[in-house]
Amino acid sequence: MSVGDSHRIEDPNATTPPPQLDVVGSVPTPPVPDPSEAMTLLVTLPPGSGGSPPHRHTGPAFGYVIEGEMIFELEGDPERVVRAGETFWEPGGDVIHYQDGNNLADARTRFVVTMFGVPGQPMLIPVSADELVQRRPRRAPRP
Fold this sequence. Notes:
This protein is mainly beta.
C-alpha cells in the first residue's frame, strides 16, 4: 500500500525522482510506558534457532523481517509465519510472547524491531514455567 502524496515533501529544486514510500505495516498506537525509551535492534536467528524463550516486553514492539522466515506467536493468537518483507507487532505489557524462532532449518532469519520500554528495565522479561501452566488456557490451540 502506498502512502500517497500526503507524506511527501515537494522539492522544486529536485533533479531526480522523489523517494518511493510504501506502508508495510500500520497499527493503532498502543499504550507506551511513561517514561519510556525506544530501542531498535537488528536480530539474527541462526538456521533452526528457536529464538527467545517465552517472555514479555514492558512496552510495544514493531518489527520488519528483512531476510528469512520467523515463527511468531503472541498469547491468544495462533502462531504464524512472518516472511521477509512482512511486519509484526506486539502490544507489550502483560501479553506473553511465546515464539520468535527461525522457521528455516537451512538459512538465517533477520529482522529489525523497535521496542518501547521502561528505561532501566530489561527489554525481555522471562515468563516462569509456573506462569505458563497457569495461563495455558489463554494460549491459542496448537497446530
